[in-house]
Each structure stands twice: as C-alpha cells, then as structure tokens.
Amino acid sequence: MKIQRVEAIPYTIPMKKPLHFASGSVHQIDHVLVRLTTDDGLVGVADIPPRPYTYGETQAGVVALLETLFSDALVGCDPLDRGRLHAALDRTVGNHATKGGVDIAIWDLIGKSVGQPVHRLLGGYTDSLRVAHMIGFAEPAAMVEEAQGFRDEYGIAVFKVKVGRRPLSLDIDLCFALREGLGTDVELYLDANRGWTATEAVQVLDATAGLGLTYFEEPDDAREILGRRRLVQLSRIPVVADESVPTLGDAAREIQTGGATALSIKTARSGFSESQKILAYAEALGVDVIMGNQIDSQIGSTATVTFGAAFAHSSRRAAELSNYLDMADDLVAEPLVIRDGVIAAPTVPGVGVDIDPEKLARYRTDGRN
Ligand code: MUC
Ligand code: MG
C-alpha cells in the first residue's frame, strides 16, 4: 500500500453562532479537508482546523504546505511506516494542525486497510465518552441559558466556560451567575486563553474559591514563567496547559518545570500518534488529561472520540466534543449523536467518518471537483 495522492481541500461553513474567546473569535469555519489516496484505492481523511491566533497556521498556508513539502514527504510511502513519515514531516517545524490532520488521515488508511475501527486499533478501552460543552463569551444570562439548553437537550452536565476578559469582574460575576443558574450538580471549569496576567488569575481564583470550579485552563501566558509558577503554586485546582503544549516536548517542559498541573490533549493538533505519547506521559505522572476541542467539526470531534475512548486515562473525564453544534452545517454523511450527555465511539473501519460528496462540493472554496 502506497500513498499516491495528497489532496488539500479548503472549505468554509458559517457558524450558527460565532464563538468568542480571549484570544480570538470564530465567525465561520475555514478548515481544510486532507484526503490521502493509496494505490489500492483506499482513501484516508481528516479535518484540519487552522487557528491563526493560537498557532499561526492559516487555511491558505495549510493548503500550500500539504501541496508542496508534505506531498513530497508522503507520496510513494506506505502509511504503515508512521515513524518514517513523521520524521519526514517534522523536517518542517511547527504546523501542528497540519501534521495532526495528516496523522489522523494515515490512521484512517491503516484502519480501513485492515478493516478495523481505529478506536480499537489504538486501545478500544470504552465505547463512549461523556461530553463537555465549551461556552463562548456573551452576557452572563445568555451563557446560563445556553448551558441550560445544552443540559436539557443533550444531557450535558460539564461546561468549559470561556473567561479572560477585562475587567475581571465580568468573569467573576459570570462564574457566580453560572453556579447560581445551573446548581451544584453541573461541573464548571474555566479557560482564559491567556487573557489575564498571573496576578489577575490569582484574584479570580480567590474570588471564585467557593464555587467548586474544577480546572483553570491557560489563565495567563505560560511563557511568563515566574508569574505562571507562582500561580500554579497558589492554585488548589489543576492549572491546565492547552495552547502551550502542542507537542510531547512542550507538555514535558510545562509539567516538569511547574508551569502546569494538568494537560489538554487535542487530536486536531497532535493527531493520534503524538497524542498517545502525551497521554502515556501524563498517565505515568498522575497528571489529569482533558480531551480538548480546537473548535472542531464533526469530522474532528469523531477523531477525538476515536482516540479519547481508546484509553482509560483519556476517558476518565468528559471530553470537549460538542462545539460542532455551533456550526451551521458539516461535511459528514451521518451526523454525530449526543444522547444522555455521551457520544459513542465509532465501530466502522477507519477513524469513523464518511464525507458527503454533495456537501463537500457545496462548501469547498477551491472551485475544483
Ligand atoms: C480552547 O480550548 O482554547 C480556542 C482557540 C483554540 O485554538 O482552541 C479553542 C478552544
Ligand atoms: Mg483552551
């Protein structure tokens, strides 16, 4: 089996409701579908969500990289030789989402070539994951209403709340409003996307200490190392590294040097291969893991379930799987189902998505077919 063709298909889908957070806003999905075709006719797919404000990748840049350096590295290679393929891709630095997508597409080929769900090839630990929903900036009353709606409609009882605004009182008032509006049987954790300074983050921790918040994700910029370490030492709840840890090396640096006490793993930026290394590292150290969401489509969320449900350590807590619900449409032939707050792991060969050709033709922006 040899990879014969690498396609990078840019597509755009509007959001039903824009998502606002401290480091940026998403009004429409400008993603890239990567499609790898082998000489025996298998097709591996994955979704690549570029996040310029987080990692610097853009839709046009992802397409260019896939069509040039990455095509050169992939065409003619056997997808089973993942180690060799990654060594070739890693000759280009950064570009985490592009590499993550290629890795997932390679796994999709491997699963299809042996007729097995990748979820089982990776580990097959459990058949579903609990869902955590991420709520973007809005007025507190609207955020409470949104969470209530997701709880009533989908049975979701875990919410990641976007914070990191100035003035701080906005975020603090919001935490109180959510706890009062949702009661104590709902889990709430915060993600500030580096919006505060370390000092401000400590003020928020102090002000919200009685609210039972469970995690504190990227409260400040992890590169401001002394402030971050002071914050980690003062925090009674785990400080989660997210955008500061796209690779195993980054994760090890932040944990070993006291920059964080928990890790977000996103298959959108570390695929399955690098994610598996990060997960094993976290498990060995007793560091909590949250399966995160890079504002993923249903293609991306399916990949997260495939991986997250494959291992005990990644399935302990609710995974961020539901932000595709903010999108007006998707490319998948069969929609994901959230019932009683859980999503089932795929049982079909490969990663578990089928692309609807009509939707792809409607939303692709390269004018090709
Ligand atoms: C998150 O957890 O930070 C926002 C930007 C990004 O890259 O991911 C999202 C969610
Ligand atoms: Mg985050």
Written description of the protein model:
With 369 residues, this protein is of the alpha/beta class. Helix content is 40%, strand content 21%. It folds into two domains: 3-115, 2-Layer Sandwich (Enolase-like, domain 1); 120-344, TIM Barrel (Alpha-Beta Barrel), CATH 3.20.20.120. It contains 14 helices and twelve strands. The chain is globular. Bound molecules: [(2S)-5-oxo-2,5-dihydrofuran-2-yl]acetic acid and magnesium ion. Magnesium ion (MG) binds next to loops.
List the helices and strands and how they pair.
Blueprint: E1 3-21, E2 24-38, E3 43-48, H1 52-55, H2 59-74, H3 82-89, H4 96-114, H5 118-122, E4 128-135, H6 140-154, E5 158-162, H7 168-182, E6 187-191, H8 198-207, E7 216-217, H9 225-234, E8 239-241, H10 248-256, E9 262-265, H11 267-270, H12 273-285, E10 288-291, H13 298-308, E11 319-320, E12 342-344, H14 357-363
Parallel strand pairs: 4-5, 4-11, 5-6, 6-7, 7-8, 8-9, 9-10
Antiparallel strand pairs: 1-2, 2-3, 4-12
Helix pairs in contact: 6-7, 8-9
The chain binds [(2S)-5-oxo-2,5-dihydrofuran-2-yl]acetic acid (MUC) and magnesium ion.
Magnesium ion (MG) is lined by residues 191, 193, 217-218, 242, 264.
Nearest-angstrom radius of gyration? 20 Å
What is the H-and-E element order?
Answer: EEEHHHHHEHEHEHEHEHEHHEHEEH
Count of all domains: 2
Distance between the termini: 25 Å
What would the average pLDDT be, to the nearest integer?
A: 97
How would you sum up the major sheet?
9 strands, mixed
Supply the CATH class of the largest domain.
Answer: Alpha Beta
Annotation, overall tally of beta strands:
12
CATH superfamily of the largest domain: Enolase-like C-terminal domain
Shape: globular
Strand content: 15-25%
Q: Determine the number of helices (DSSP H or I, runs of at least 4 residues).
A: 14
Given as residue ranges, the uncertain stretches (5+ residues, pLDDT < 50) are: none
Hetero ligands? [(2S)-5-oxo-2,5-dihydrofuran-2-yl]acetic acid, magnesium ion
- The CATH architecture of the largest domain would be Alpha-Beta Barrel
Structural class: alpha/beta
The CATH topology of the largest domain: TIM Barrel
The helicity comes to: 25-40%
